[in-house]
Amino acid sequence: MRKRLMFITAGVAAAALALSGCSGGDAGTGSTDGASDGGALFEVATDVQLEGSPTYDAMVKADKVRIGVKEDQPGLGYLDAATGERSGFDVEMATWIAASLGFDADKIEFKAIPSANRESAIVNGDIDYYVGTYSITDKRKEQIDFAGPYFETGQGLLVAADNDDIKGEDDLAGKTVCSATGSTPIQNIKDNFPDTKTEEFDTYSQCVEALNDGKVDAVTTDQAILIGYAAQFPDDLKVVGEPFSTELYGIGLPKGDDALRHFINTMFTNGGDTWTKIYDATLGASGTKVTQPAVDDY
Ligand code: GLU
């Protein structure tokens, strides 16, 4: 097995990752609740010293890391109810961060938190960080901080495979579209599509169910999420049109923990080909090619 060491320095923080040569693309799952931890894309090779981060200090004290995720978004954050295995790009990103902080998969506690409850979960200290299709916005930054961005996508539309009416966002007048409460896509519809009716649920999988039942005309959220649902129901659903917003995903962090934010940003910047390996093993498996966005100081 090919091993490559990569050293990461973030101010006072230093971590070293050893990539396990995972050429077959079998991603590590990092789940504590039943998932196997074989075939990880990364592992920690040396001790981490991260000073001045209250969040990291609390993790060390608790000897675990609590990560907020989605678990109904195939390819991104998904829990297989039958096997208890978690998978997806966000799950792997979350696990990579934990590994870089010195926490193996068996020290991770994943908590499913829907879009509307993310800021409060971070503010209340229910989780140490959040990784789940979480767009960086100024409004959210009033309460929390973001590391990243680590992924770029845009708002899209999912419709029934036999729907010929809706080909893009210009066809939404008089239609009912479904999205998640507290999300940027539902806000965009409410703000900018006055002739479109909305239906909302806690999760996107509830919207997909409503679409499959013919109760709504479309589901709208990030295209990266919709592609996963279309792949789940290839005969029944299709993604239409071009993305009509820019969504930059960030890691949700407690406000003011600059040490942890800089640590993660440096990890993303100096991560070598870890990002690509994770992408190829998860979202990229569908054949869509994208590249890692440049990290910014949000
Ligand atoms: N990225 C958008 C957001 O953060 C939609 C996806 C989601 O709700 O997680 O609101």
UniProtKB/TrEMBL annotation:
Is the keyword Chloroplast in the record? Answer: no
| SMART domains for the chain | PBPb
Q: Which Pfam families match?
A: SBP_bac_3
Tree of life domain:
Bacteria
Domain called Solute-binding protein family 3/N-terminal: residue spans: 64-286
Keywords, comma-separated and alphabetical? Signal, Transport
Q: Which GO terms describe its cellular component?
A: extracellular region; outer membrane-bounded periplasmic space
Instruction: List, in alphabetical order, the GO biological process terms annotated in this UniProt record.
Output: amino acid transport
> Which interval of the chain is the signal sequence?
1-27
Give the protein family: Belongs to the bacterial solute-binding protein 3 family.
Identification of the protein by name:
Amino acid ABC transporter substrate-binding protein (PAAT family)
Species in which this protein is naturally found? Plantibacter flavus
